[in-house]
Design goal:
Elements lengths: L1 H24 L8 E2 L14 E7 L4 E4 L16 E8 L15
Antiparallel strand pairs: 1-4, 2-3, 2-4
Amino acid sequence: MASFGIKLAAAFLLAQASIGLAAATGDNGLTDWLPMQDWRRCAQLARPGLIFEIRNAEGLSLFAECSDAPPAAPWDWKSPAVEFRPVQEPKPRHSSPLPAPAG
């Protein structure tokens, strides 16, 4: 239990220190990957502007907010989620306005 607390504290400090680096490099991952067995403790890592990237054994990932249970795997995942990490929430992208109707 104590080792998880130390790892969690180190992950949080690393997350805070690497926000600028992540923005500069384009990698929005803020910490090392944590095993899904620790998902119930995601609330300790949750901060405004952060969401969680969840990855399966095939390398596929999804993004989710912290909740009591991890989100259900998408229908096309052939392996369960194995790890997660906090990442910066992407800024919303707005599409170009629709063109005016013809005629």
